[in-house]
Amino acid sequence: MLENKDYKVIGTRPIRHDGVDKVTGRALYGADFQAAGLLHGRVLRSPHAHAKIISIDTSRAEALPGVKGVVTAKDLPDAGDKVADLGEGAVNLKHLCDNILASDKVLYKGHAVAAVAATNPHIAEEACTLIDVEYEVLSPVLEVRQAMEPDAPLLHEHLKTTSLGETADEPSNVASHIQHKLGDPEKGFAEADVIIEREFVTGTVHQGYIEPHNATAHYNADGQLTIWCSTQGAFTVREQVAEILQYPISKIKVVPMEIGGGFGGKISVYIKPVAAMLAKKTGKPVKVLMNRADVFEGTGPTPASFIRVKMGATKEGKLTAAQGYLAFEAGAYPGSPVGPGAMCIFAPYSIENVIIDGYDVVVNKPKTAPYRAPGAPNAAFGSETVLDEIAEHLGIDPLEIRLMNGAKEGDRRADGPVHPRIGFIETVEAAKAHPHYSAPNGKKHHGRGVASGYWFNIGLESSVTINVNADGTINLVEGSTDIGGTRASIAMQAAEVLGIPAESVNPSVVDTNSVGYTAVTGGSRTTYATGYAAYEAAQEVKRQMITRAAKLWEVDEANVQFADGEFSSINGKEEQISFRDLCARLGETGGPIVGSGTVNPGGAGGAYATHVVDVEVDEETGKVEILRYTAVQDAGKAIHPSYVEGQIQGGAVQGIGWALNEEYIYNAEGEMTNASFLDYRMPTCLDLPMIDAVIVEVPNPGHPYGVRGVGEVPIVPPMAAIANAIYDAIGVRMTELPMSPDRLLKALGKI
Amino acid sequence: MRDFSYIAANTIPEAVALLDEKGENARILAGGTDLIVQVREARRDVNWIIDIKSIPEVNALDYNADTGLVLGAAVECYKIYADDAICKGYPGLIDATKIIGGTAIQGRAAVGGNLCNASPAADGIPPLIVLNATCVIAGPNGEREVPVEQFCTAPGQTVLKNGEMLVSIKIPAPESNSSSFYLRFIPRNEMDIAVVGAGASVVLDDTKQTIVSARIALAAVAPTPLFAEEASARLAGREISDAAIDEAAEAAKAIARPISDMRGTAEQRTHLVGVLTRRALNGAIQRVREAT
To answer: Domain containing A394: what range?
Structure first.
């Protein structure tokens, strides 16, 4: 069992290593990339939500002066039906290729159809208007329940439902059906004194990262392809591009530029293969940038969903059974996060009898992509609202019912795994003890709500190399793109091992040719897994340094110890040398020291959060104001508390946006009518109170410092917490997201 | 973005001659906060951009307690709300200038531009209507004047003919015991376009208990901003009461003919007309009563 012991570096708040470059505007992002002879690419996108492509004629575009090349799906290698294993899961390669450039059908407005490279972006844009595409327009399917109807228009003629291992005979928009079952749900519901069953609908929402996607590609004459881009994972870009273009990974180098946010949305590739195709065709470097409308319409949002939750409890408040039905919109191609949603829905609680059904359903919207704890927020909106209603029905405090039923070490999740040491109960206790929860809450139209959330976090591969410098500093080479301060949190773990200040570490995020394989910055894994690799690399450096000290003093290695940045000789000979001084003597003791660490750890500790929110509702306009927000979270061990707090605050804010106003609004033709930050209403700083982030530390036994991932779980509770607060304020249960003013007015019977 | 030509005009006749010569594909640039976005997003086909910012008349900002305000068409929002006399005389206009875009936009955007852009949701227009403002228009045949409520004819369309430009907006001097108020409903607290906007001006008697006259105007509930004539007329001579204000609010709702779009539904907008009209009237009345 890990203790929360005192550390020298861990738990402190040094200035992040990339901070100066970022606040002075010197950090280089993908759009900043320049090269001699650079061409500019532009993608032509479908104006229709659902249509067959009859023909594409690019001749007028090719004839426009300044146009150097045009590509369509015909320029992609024939994908066949190969299934490629890429990054976070298996993907049907034809679907992957068709999402890059549509071959036979367009499946959403904004679907890429062709692309142009020209001498400037304006010519490329104009050339796109000269590409003649003949479509046969089909009826769009825009909602998950509509898509599941037997007579719904089909997106894919060959898609058949896979249900619990069996494949159906007839085609359907339902790609798959999964089920988790624990105990005897029927018996559990029979034992309940109170059963609440409700239906919920959530809208399509986007990650809303500030920096749009970008990619610049260049083919050398020897066939070496280089891609400079914004990504959450250079290695997954390399894999996806290799698969899509059927090109060897050894011939592709991906250079990750700084990244202006991803939240899961910068794992899948969109324009990176297109830039590569245009570069190949033109023999020149080609830069492709998306604008905001491209990002909304042409990249993966997180799914809309229909969710039914039924929970039963005894009159004392013990949960006896739970049932979940989750139907998620996958977008144009299968692969929604209904799986993770089904894994997380009841995971905060120890319930003996559970059944969960999940459906992955294609609709005429962009193929969904991960977004912060993908699937879990949708699911928790349902389960945490129903639990609130049960608590209200039984007259039990909502945090108390969570304490009574909270999952602990040794409890089994409905999908199988047994919880290791987890900190759910501790988050509820901290929320209960927080002054917010006991503050007065009696004003008219004011309400308070709570909700909890779970995210399992992932491990996966990471590599770190440390080069020791003669001045006592180290250069730390890593492959995890830094989105939320991970250069600092990784560097600090190496610094702790070596007894040096965080400032003595120079972290670099490098390209795929320059560091060992490293999986994406995602799944809340970076501080955990790449930090773990940095710990291992630093341990290797320490071992080598001990050897050098032993050599210097002509003692046995076993007689050299290292503590607080000092090597010392024990058992006889009195010798001492600091890490810094020994670094200056590497040349004379055997040459440079390089330490490497690689990990693929299985012990990613699950993360829990419990949020408390106060709202004020304007009953005349339906507008909800967030008055106070407290977010409690188990971080395992907060390496850099400021960046942990930043993650908690950011997740809560995105959840608030999802709860109140964010959604893709579609017209009957399936066109998104709010594809801009003006009308896709993310909260601004003027819409938010200070988010009070409270860190609870229940160390993860699967990490040397007890780290749990922190980036995702804070987006899980906000929607239900706010719905519960709205109910407390005005006595109306909201079951549809977003809880926008017009929906509140309807629920209040005002319109 | 397509190539276009830029010309800076230095006088009204020069600008009018250019507009007359270049025809429909010429647009006037003042703050550019609408125009530049429209050109970049290919929402307007523009070959000629005529910059009027160096013409003295469009930069006029002359307030006189007896004759009122002459507001040049290119005067930026921030200059309006930085002027204490204008803030005191026309608080409803100030309400609007402080919510058109963010601070940076208010440094460029002009109320005249807001008017010429003719958005149904323009925040700048209802306050001008309730303040009885008049547009001064220059053209090849000289000057003419049009009341603000008649200026917009459809979304993005105005009474300006080929060769014509808005020079300034004239607002009468504020009467004693009068004030004005503008507010909009947006789902966020800033950086949004009005789902509904409502402006009101009132003139009270010396007891401040009776409404001598009132004007109400609405945004985002019709193809153009609306003057709610009947709702306004109903308040004339009425003692201030919730019933009188409710009656005006209901009359305002009756002329709303909103659409449903990504910013709000028709039912929501009609409902909000009632809510915002009440709030605008009460706000204006309160300002009169609080004035010293």
So the answer is: 305-457+605-747
Buried b (16+ CB within 10 A) or exposed e, B4-33: eeeeebeebeebbebbeebeeebbbbbbbb
Mean pLDDT of A572-600: 95
- Residue B133 in tokens: 């403002």
Q: What residue type is assigned to position A572 of the chain? A: G
Which CATH fold topology does B5-51 show? 3.30.43
DSSP of A589-601 = HTS--EEEEEE--
Residues β-bridged to residue B210:
B239
Euclidean distance between CA atoms A606 and A188, whole angstroms: 26
Token output for A185: 């749900």
**CA-based nearest distance B75→chain A, Å:** 25
DSSP A97: H
Q: How many residue contacts between A and B have a Cβ separation below 8 Å?
A: 58
Taking the CA of residue A647 and the nearest CA in chain B, the distance in Å comes to 23
How many angstroms separate the Cα of A168 from the Cα of each of A160, A162, A163, A720?
6, 6, 8, 36
Q: Is A681 on the interface with B (CB under 8 A)?
A: yes
Omega within 30 of 0 (cis) for the link into A507: no
The topology under which CATH files domain B57-171 is 3.30.465
* Shared-domain flag, residues A368 and A508: no
Please give, rounded to a whole number of angstroms, the shortest distance from the CA of B45 to a CA of chain A.
13
Overall domain count for chain A: 3
Q: What CATH homologous superfamily does B178-290 map to?
A: CO dehydrogenase flavoprotein, C-terminal domain (3.30.390.50)
For A623, nearest residue in chain B (alpha carbons) = B187
Q: How far is A435 from chain B (nearest CA, A)?
A: 27
A chain contacts of residue B3, beta-carbon cutoff 8 Å: 122
Tell whether A623 lies on the interface with B, counting CB pairs under 8 A.
yes
Residues A382 and A287 in one domain: no
Give the side-chain half-sphere CA count within 13 A for A732. Answer: 19
The residue of chain A with its CA nearest to that of B267 is A751
- Which of A:659-678 have CB within 8 Å of B? 660-661, 665, 673-674, 678
Query: Is residue A639 domain-resident?
Result: yes
Classify residue A558 by burial, with Cβ atoms within 10 Å: 0-12, 13-18, 19+: exposed
Residue A542 lies in a domain: yes
State the best of A681, A722, A736, A739 to mutate against chain B, taking most chain B CBs within 10 Å: A681
The answer to whether residues A527 and A508 belong to one domain is yes
Smallest CA–CA distance, residue B70 to chain A, in Å, is 32
Cβ neighbours of residue A470 closer than 8 Å, sequence gap 6 or more: A583, A584, A586, A587
Cβ contacts of A622 on chain B, cutoff 8 Å: 268
Q: For residue B187, give the nearest of A125, A623, A751 by CB distance.
A: A623
- List, for residues B30-48, the tens digit of each pLDDT value: 999 999 999 998 888 899 9
Taking the Cβ of residue A687 and every Cβ of chain B, the question of whether any pair is shorter than 8 Å is answered with yes
CB distance B271–A751 less than 8 Å? yes
Q: Mind listing the pLDDT tens digit for each residue in B134-175?
A: 999 999 999 999 999 999 999 999 999 999 999 999 999 999
Name the domain boundary from A548, A575, A599: A599
From A123-127, A434-438, A709-713, B40-44, the region with the lowest mean pLDDT: B40-44
ipTM, interface predicted TM-score of the complex: 0.95
For B275, which of A620, A684, A740 is closest by C-beta distance? A620
Whose structure tokens read 């940095």?
A534
